[in-house]
Amino acid sequence: MTEPMQSCFAERILSADALLKRLSTLKSAGKKIVFTNGVFDLIHPGHVRYLASAKELGDVLVVALNTDESVRRLKGDKRPILNLFERSKIIASLESVDFVTSFEEDTPLEIIKKLMPDILVKGGDYTPDTIVGRKEVEEAGGKCMNLQLAPGLSTSSIIERIIKASQLAHK
User: Fold this and answer.
1) pLDDT tens digits, 128-154
2) How far apart are CA 64 and CA 103, in angstroms?
3) In this structure, is the dihedral angle defined by the CA atoms of residues 46, 49, 51 and 54, taken in order, positive or negative?
4) Backbone angles phi, psi at 121, to 5 degrees
């Protein structure tokens, strides 16, 4: 059952270099490229809403995922819950997402500079001053936007709820 899913989304999960070529063609055709990034571990309704809202801002939505090593550096040894391959397939399966790529650094600055989207999007937990790549995108004529997050929905809060439920079940 994994083979059809893998082949179905393979054209949407690309290296940064392959994605750059695809985006170049799309930009030449006048398409507006929207970019966001994150871990996207344990996909929840907040992620789905956020990505759908990001897609509404342009024609093509690119999601860059932190590699597993990057996630461990940022969030500790117990994360990610799902590996990059699994997270990529899930994100690529969402209707609002056109392309998925990944980056190894702790911030997406290098991939943002490489892909240079028309619109850079982050969640409302970021301020314009803390959005990595904002300066570069705006200097190139693009826009940077914050999208409201769904209150109470985060991977960390879901993990905490699972741990609490497990502890209660073992009492």
Assistant:
1) 889 999 999 999 999 999 998 766 666
2) 7
3) negative
4) -125, 135
